[in-house]
Design goal:
single chain, 425 residues, mainly beta, Immunoglobulin-like, Methylamine Dehydrogenase, Chain H, 2 domains, five-stranded mixed sheet, five-stranded antiparallel sheet, 1 helix, 45% strand, elongated
């Protein structure tokens, strides 16, 4: 009985060279079509004898695979040696195959690349004969990233600030700020907006909200019931309250859109900016951001506020850190689904209060900046703060090959409690 083999090699991931500035849902491409590029082409295969395989064909079946077939003419071979070359690379052995093999699929190839093959029957250390050469070119990749793009704005300036996906309902939510009439008439100087899209990019609904002053929407999150939480800040009152200057807010919208059915408020009397929001499986809402209180001048400190939508607009608890003399911000947060602990990530120009251990960049953190991660439990009690610094800046070169400070990206917590932090130096 003749046997057939399929072989897959593993490739390493390549880094992205640029970040697309469009709203896109990414997925796999490929049409599934088969194209014969070179079939049974005759080349200068050496050592051709009575035991040599014949009729070798190569067919490109995708952008990364080529299917090979041949006739086994030997009766006493131990196996076959399959070789491949390309325009850039010389002949090399792809696989050693057992006796009676008559087909093989070469996988993990480069797209739109020509490859040439030959197969040799072997017995022990002897070659019984080599087939003709056959060539094929892998298909060009099709639709490898973008399934759809969209552009939906007003005639004035519109900015997207946050995106969230609801996997249970296969919906995409977008928030941002507009200076035009995006989803109704313009209300103030800058208005916030929320848009809902289905999996095909179709706009399901949108709403524009704000005050007669400036309003910003900066982040969005979804709870298990499909309610949509929009974080932001405003120059006006929030739920009838104002602590002065800019105040932070979180609005809850029903899955069908419309007006908010609950609002949370955070304010200190100076500028308070919300940058992130998350919802626990138990329905607790955590808002995070940066405040200029009690900083001297324009210095900033990070804060967190947890809300219970059933208990009104004011936070159940708040957490603040920093020393008020240098800049510390908060860019992202995540909630542990098991115990409700909150993990916040940001950047600091000072050794944070209660930091665990000795920061690697303690002597000049004020000049270059470190990443910090803070853990606050479900009652608002700080558990620990760690600082991550590369020691770069001030002309020094870090272990990350950088010469500036460290910049936080984001934080996530897995279902089993592992914490993942991103950033760059």
């Amino acid at each position: 009985m003749k046997t057939h083999f399929r072989h897959t090699r593993f490739l390493s991931f390549m880094s992205l060279a640029a970040l697309c500035a469009t709203l896109a849902a990414c997925g796999g491409g490929g049409s599934g079509s088969t194209r014969l590029i070179g079939s049974g082409s005759t080349g200068g295969g050496s050592n051709t004898g009575s035991g040599a395989p014949s009729g070798l064909t190569a067919t490109a079946t995708s952008s990364t695979e080529i299917a090979l077939q041949w006739t086994d003419n030997a009766t006493d071979e131990d196996g076959f040696r399959l070789e491949r070359r390309s325009q850039r690379l010389p002949w090399s052995t792809v696989a050693q195959l057992p006796a009676d093999t008559t087909s093989y699929t070469d996988s993990a190839l480069s797209p739109n690349t020509a490859y040439t093959y030959r197969v040799t029957a072997t017995r022990g250390s002897a070659d019984l004969g080599t087939s003709n050469e056959a060539s094929a070119t892998t298909l060009a990749p099709t639709n490898t990233c973008t399934e759809w793009t969209l552009s939906n704005g007003s005639t004035d300036e519109d900015r997207v600030q946050g995106v969230a996906y609801d996997p249970a309902r296969d919906r995409l939510y977008v928030v941002g700020t507009t200076q035009g009439a995006l989803a109704g008439p313009r209300i103030g100087g800058r208005d916030a907006f929320l848009q809902a899209y289905d999996a095909t990019g179709k706009l399901l609904w949108q709403t524009q909200f704000g005050s007669s002053l400036d309003d910003w929407a900066t982040a969005v999150a979804i709870d298990r019931a499909g309610n949509v939480y929009v974080a932001g800040f405003t120059d006006d009152k929030v739920a009838g309250q104002s602590a002065g200057a800019r105040d932070a807010f979180v609005h809850r919208f029903p899955p069908s859109g419309g007006r908010p059915n609950w609002t949370g408020h955070y304010g200190t009397g100076r500028d308070d900016h919300a940058s992130c929001v998350a919802v626990s499986p138990q329905g607790k809402v955590v808002l995070g951001g940066t405040s200029r209180n009690p900083g001297i001048g324009n210095e900033q400190d990070p804060w967190l506020a947890q809300f219970d939508p059933g208990a009104g607009a004011n936070p159940v608890w708040t957490w603040k850190s920093g020393n008020g003399f240098f800049n510390e911000n908060l860019v992202d947060l995540a909630i542990d689904p098991n115990n409700g602990d909150v993990y916040a990530i940001g950047r600091t120009q000072v050794v944070m209060p209660h930091v665990v251990g000795s920061p690697p960049n303690a002597n000049n953190v004020w000049a270059v900046g470190d990443i910090y991660v803070a853990r606050v439990d479900a009652t608002g009690t700080e558990k620990w703060i760690v600082q991550i610094g590369s020691g770069c800046g001030m002309g020094a070169q870090s272990r990350f090959k950088g010469t500036g400070g460290d910049i936080p990206g984001g934080v996530a917590v897995s279902e089993t409690g592992e914490i993942y932090v991103t950033g760059f130096a």
